[in-house]
Amino acid sequence: MLSRTADNLFWLARYTERAGNVARGLGVASRMAALTARLGAEADEWRSLVTASGSDASFYRKYEAPTAEAVVHWLVFDPENPSGILPSIEAARRNARAVRTALTVDMWEALNDTWNHLRALPPEAMEGEKLADFLSWVRERVTLFNGAAHDTMLRDEAWRFVHLGTMLERADNTARLLDVKHHLLTAEAEGAVDYVQWQAVLRSVSALRSYQWIYRDRLNPRRIAELMILRPELPRSLMACFAEVAETLEAIALGHGGRRGECHRLAGTLQAQLRYGRIDAIMEEGLHAFLTTMIERVAALGGEIDAFYIRH
Amino acid sequence: MGAASSVPQARIAAFDEMRAEDGVRAAYADIDRWLRATPREQLDAKRREAELLFRRIGITFAVYGEGGDPERLIPFDIIPRIIARSEWERLALGLRQRVRALNAFLADVYGKQEILRAGRMPAALILENEGYRAEMVGIAPPGGVYTHVAGIDMVRTGPDEFYVLEDNCRTPSGVSYMLENREAMLRLFPKLCAQHRVAPVGRYPEELLETLKAVAPARAGADPCVVLLTPGPYNSAYYEHCFLADEMGVEVVEGADLCVDDDIVYMRTTAGPRRVDVIYRRIDDEFLDPKVFRADSLVGVPGLMSAYRAGNVALANAPGAGIADDKAIYPYVPEMVRFYLGEEPLLANVPTFLCDREEDRRYVLANLDKLVVKLAKGSGGYGMMIGPHATRDVREEFRARILAKPGDYIAQPTLALSTCPTVVEQGIAPRHVDLRPFILSGKEIRIVPGGLTRVAIREGSLVVNSSQGGGTKDTWILEDEGPGEAAIQSQSQSQSQSQSQSQSQSQSQSQSQSQSVGG
Asked: What is the rounded (10 degree) CA torsion for A140, A141, A144, A148?
């Protein structure tokens, strides 16, 4: 496959997944903000959301404080934030348009319809009372796109680069979401607010039900961390994402007669570390330190994939 | 029909392709019945549906730097343009002949230049032409083919009168509309399509791929690597580039995806460099290779021409093919047919005056109110004047321009382009059309029965170019009536029936599955 095509497919998937993740995060934050407003903790929610999106520096250059309005504006349509929902969909479609031939009609239509609808939408339809509806629409569209890719793409190299992009972005998102809430999962406190916070963390990866399903018990921070980091059953856990990343990279290598590079080694190491990791050890070492390392290594892996397959 | 009186400009009596004096022409009989039977609202609804469809599939052409939406739709008219098979057959014969002559001409001007030595064309007209690429002298492309894909613009002025308005020998575009317009018609009007026996156009991409493979360097073997070279997403025809490559199953590459090493062209792939044998290039000559042509080209491939000269890669269309479609060369095409083929031309040219010639210029300046004046190098309908429609000021401006640079201008009589019924704001009204069929030349010449019909949506307008607000229509070459269709239909019906049974089976399966999950 053309290197540029692989690059476009990879980023097309990353940006689409990112738009969905931002929508998911915003949805949970606005719900939390409503719940915690009485306790004066509202701003925390918005602040941690900006941090999780990895855009602290550029956000505070433009806005003084993480108010609801500012954060929603920043994460939904501010063109200065390349990770916002609109710019992400825009970037996804730009990448898609550049590789129309590598996409199935269903994928293209899912994305192109989203983009056409978005650009015709007045800002009022994405704020205030309408925000929740808008966010669930974005999530639906991303799910539709992922489903179209999953259901209609030939299982060839194009699919693998799309899948690689989705999984790497998803891993990155889970690590970041968990990291901004790490203090909640390590502190001993167990007040009502904490409980709601834990629920929110799970909700942000659509895993509240899954938790109940796996543990059949009340929420407990250690288990929440375990679920989101180590359990292979949860499709958004780091373990599940990295298993897919490693497997996909391996499949690409096999397609090229076993040609492998640093990205393969790094992905394998990460997968092994998670597969044989124990939550107790992670918590002892410090959740924050562990997650920071994870986020760095996801970035490093992205760089190595780029160096080996794209800009060789 | 149509409010003719509201047109300020002189109206030109045109041949109506649907209506003759004594009623509706035979080929349009069913279309006429359909238009009578279909209420206006329904046509409007279908028109909106068509627009949505095109927007959805993303069939747009890009217009950057003019403000507004950069991705625009070319208006699609839902009433098809009909050409009878017998009419088409005659056209096709003429098109084959013309393209053979154009290729022979190109091989000659970059080879022995016999037509110049025979004194049939002025040497300066060719050798000093901007479209002439001296770099091509001495290069022999496989099979002697230069213009592998030619688009010949035809206009009709009467029941048996067709003229070639223009040849396009470089990188003609628009074929994707021929294909997508048909798809749209099949989706919007399945019944109407089934009533007619329309010659299919869907195999064009296959024919194109075979044509391209046929001109691969010999060493490439049975399965040469073919790519389509595009300037990128900002090019107005980018959609078409992707569409064609997809239909052919080949890569769309940009200049940066290719590199030349030791006169061999490679593309950068995830598995490392891969050798390329045939390049269907949709970028202009000037940008192909910064080492040979424009040094500031960012979309080209350094070293490409050297690889081409070494015979390691084929370029379609060949660099320099543009000399054959120059508007100043056009008057000589009938002469080419006679000179190279020893035949009389089957397709007529529009009489053309070259303002560079003194007697022509005198005639043009005396008749500006009757003639169409065009830039010899222009395309896309820019920089032209339609004399009968132009104001005195515009005519005087063109007079001055012609006097200043006579070599830049040609003139032709204003032709009464034929009209077809078209859906417009006020109802259904005749609008002027032209036709661009696509002719493929490899080891043999192939023409898919059809083409791009462009229609001037504005009342009275004779300019059909999409950049000037023109639209498109599906072009139907109607096969002769005969049995066979009914049998195919009943077959596909019985198939879909048996499928729906197994579907209901899988439904009950999925139900029980969801139960066990939910339980």
From this structure: -170
